[in-house]
Amino acid sequence: MNTIGIDIGIRGGIALVNDAGAAFVMDTPTVERKISGKTKRRVDAVGLSEALAGIAVDGVIAFVERAQASPQMGVSSAFAYGEAFGLVVGVLAQLGVQTRLVSPVAWKREMGLMKPGNREIGRDEEREKDSALELARKLYPQLHASLNLAKHDGRADALLIAHYGAEILEQESAKPTQKEIEF
Fold first, then answer.
1. Among residues 31, 53, 19, 33, which one has the least CA distance to residue 163?
2. Residue 17: which of 160, 170, 177, 168 has the closest Cα?
3. Backbone dihedral region of 59: left (phi > 0), alpha (psi from -120 to 50 degrees) or beta?
4. Please, are residues 32 and 114 in contact by the beta-carbon 8 Å criterion?
5. Among 60-64, 66-70, 161-165, which is the least confidently predicted range?
6. How confident is the model at residue 151 (pLDDT cuts 50, 70, 90)?
7. For the residues 45-52, what does the mean pLDDT come to?
8. Would you give the end-to-end CA distance of the chain in angstroms?
9. What Cα–Cα distance (Å) separates residue 66 from each residue in 6, 21, 85, 110?
10. Class at the top of the CATH hierarchy for domain 3-181
11. What is the dihedral of CA 73, 76, 81, 87, to 10 degrees?
12. Residue 11 contacts by C-beta under 8 Å, 6 or more apart in sequence?
């Protein structure tokens, strides 16, 4: 099963993982726009559509990190984050890609990036980013060159979300159906 993982935001990433262990990562496409007289970076809807159309093969399922504003975000940042989330979900819907939203706590805990009792994300953001990069490089050594800088943390998160999605799908396919249970 092919899974797409998407880490939302202008520093986010897009990843594709298939059941043969092949993987691909890229930064989320962005564009500079004039907003209230200032130049700001935003997710590029056209670039995003082109990137996702290139990897949205039949049967692929996208796992998208559920957007949620945090108290540390300013109003403008929270709006831009929500806008990016809406673009991603909209493009996936337009392409006919089945989409599942995953909470950051769920995938990070499952991938061993959070302690079991901890419900807070970003308490030690730098350590979290370093751990995600390290784990992504370990799981997908063929992508080491694409994950070799600290700024590639969005790519690493996307790759780990795709990996998490693949594990979820594998678990679901291993569960017996009602017909298999009947005697």
1. 19
2. 160
3. left
4. no
5. 66-70
6. very high
7. 94
8. 30
9. 10, 25, 8, 16
10. alpha beta
11. 170
12. 27, 28, 151, 153, 154
CB-based contact 107:164 (threshold 8 Å): yes
Token pair for 177: 């159906």
Residues 6 or more apart whose CB falls under 8 angstroms from that of 113 comprise 128, 131, 132, 135, 160
Beta strands 3-7 and 13-17, pairing class: antiparallel
Helix, strand and coil in the chain, % to nearest 5? 50, 20, 30
Q: pTM for the full model?
A: 0.87
In the chain, where are the structural domains located? 3-181
Estimate the crossing angle of helix 45-55 against helix 75-94, to 10 degrees: 40
